[in-house]
Automatic annotation (TrEMBL):
Pfam families: ImpA_N. Residues 9-81 form the ImpA N-terminal domain. This is ImpA N-terminal domain-containing protein. InterPro entries: ImpA_N. PANTHER family: IMPA N-TERMINAL DOMAIN-CONTAINING PROTEIN (PTHR37024:SF5), TYPE VI SECRETION SYSTEM DUF2094 AND IMPA-RELATED DOMAIN PROTEIN (PTHR37024). It comes from the Bacteria.
Length: 81
């Protein structure tokens, strides 16, 4: 799933994109009282979609790094950075 060939350019405000809302909703599970599992693969995929369509913004990049860390450990975090 992860490709090192993603173009990196500064993005606009991503809050208008449905993918942003989907990532935010998925990550809201972290503070849900029932603690449902976060689908980190979905978070990663949605972040990549946002990067492709909107460019890179700090919030999406942070979420992407968290997803890479959860899926692949420190090597994933390194790739995310």
């Amino acid at each position: 799933m992860f490709s090192r060939n993603l173009p990196v350019h500064a993005g606009q405000d991503p809050r208008a994109w449905s993918e942003y809302t989907q990532v935010r909703d998925e990550l809201s599970k972290l503070t849900h009282p029932a603690r449902p599992d976060v689908d980190w693969r979905k978070v990663e995929q949605l972040c990549v979609t946002l990067f492709r369509h909107n460019g890179t913004d700090l919030q999406t990049a942070a979420w992407f790094c968290c997803a890479r860390l959860q899926r692949s450990g420190l090597s994933g975090l390194s790739e995310g950075l």
